[in-house]
Amino acid sequence: MRPAQRRELMLARGALQVQAGN
User: Fold this and answer.
1) Interatomic CA distance for residues 12 and 22, integer angstroms
2) What pTM was estimated for this model as a whole?
3) Domain of life, per the record (predicted)?
């Protein structure tokens, strides 16, 4: 697992949270 991949996963999760909150 690469750190960059994990960072992308975190970003995707944040975007999903924003969509759910919106």
Assistant:
1) 15
2) 0.46
3) Eukaryota
